[in-house]
Amino acid sequence: MSCDALLALLLAANAAAVEEPKILSWHTGSVLSVAVSPDGRLIASGGGDDTINLWSSTGTLLSSWAGHSGPVGALAFSPDGRRLVSGSDDHAVKLWDVKSGKMLATWTAPKDEVWAAAFSPKGDKVVVAGKEPLIRAWDLKAGQANAWKGHVGAVGAVAFSPDGTRVVSAGFDGTLRLWEPAGRLLATWKGHTGYVLDAAFSPDGKRVISASKDKTIRVWDVATGKTTAVWRGHDAIVKTVAFSPDGKKAISAGWDKVVRVWNAETGDNLETWEGHLEAIFALSYFPDGRRAVSGGRDKTLRIWRAAPGPYLTPPAEPAPKPRRLARRHRPIVHAPETAPGPPTWVEEEVSDDEDEEEDFEPEPGADPGPPLALTALVLILLANWAAWRRSRV
């Protein structure tokens, strides 16, 4: 085999290794929600198995948290990465300490299955939504809550604008609604012809993208409320969307089992990532913009290379000890069935005693990713050797 042929084969093999998604398997039910910590070191996933799993950025399982008694359809990290909020079909919203895995508080809405949650950019407020036509919001410092009424039907998503001055919600009534953080409805956006299942602000806060049962993604101008573009390409329901950290790209996924990458300015479909075996329910970019993570009905998460650069950057600090939290916690105190007032916070007692924890090992065979540095060195040496051979001919 000639040097040029060998070099071509190595380049092709390296490209394939880099682009192959990392597969994370531990959930025994569908992966319904994913969130990446602000520093990019941790991934949280919520499952139909009622658990929350915490992973390192390299795909190593660090811990599995029990506490919910229903599918976990909503997750969001606080801006400082120290807390995680979760929502479930068990009508509960829980606040967790990320470092220790302890539940800090629980609030419940007796009739509502919680499908969406978002922290404010300052980390002092949380909004959640779900099966009921309400958005519930509370001030974490004061413990005061209120409910916003506007949608006619379930609410599939909520998101704060980057500056914290606006909240967008996506409804099964086919509309998006723009709110002030105090709960005043500012605008109702119409355009989709089916349920609106997800919505996300651009990093500059000037645009919103939305995903719908009508198989389209719409781009909205926040200032005018007008649709500026409609992206088509999916063959089935679009369940989830996300902007890249620089706002130049966006990703979407849904029932057709693929992730599509879009040019956020032109609407061109740049790439299609295939790998999931069933519908995809959740997506998130990493803060570096080089990676994205998805989760779906096939019970797996997949980490994708979204831009050139290192594939999987190890965490800068040692990972927490793998552990499964004890399933003991105080009974949830339910709020009254009338319009929500101040939430009832319940301090959860979870012992740190080693004898009362259920320890387990991470998933066998966890792989930190392809050895890019070694491969790159080999390629450089081969390229230099090939150039030297040509110069001698």
Q: Do you know the CATH topology of the largest domain?
A: Methylamine Dehydrogenase, Chain H
Q: Structural class of the helix and strand makeup?
A: mainly beta
CATH superfamily of the largest domain: YVTN repeat-like/Quinoprotein amine dehydrogenase
- Tell me, what is the CATH class of the largest domain? Mainly Beta
Low-confidence stretches: 9-18, 310-374
The N- and C-terminal alpha carbons lie at a distance of: 18 Å
The proportion of strand residues reads 35-45%
Mean pLDDT: 82
CATH architecture heading of the largest domain: 7 Propeller
Strand sequence of the main sheet, in spatial order? Answer: 2-3-4-5-29
What gyration radius follows from the Cα positions, in whole Å?
Answer: 22 Å
Q: Based on Cα principal axes, name the global outline.
A: globular
How many individual β-strands? Answer: 29
Largest sheet: 5 strands, mixed
| Structural domain count | 2
Q: Name the helicity range.
A: under 10%
Tally of alpha and pi helices: 2
Keywords:
393 residues; mainly beta; Methylamine Dehydrogenase, Chain H; five-stranded mixed beta sheet; four-stranded antiparallel beta sheet; 2 helices; 29 strands; 10% helix
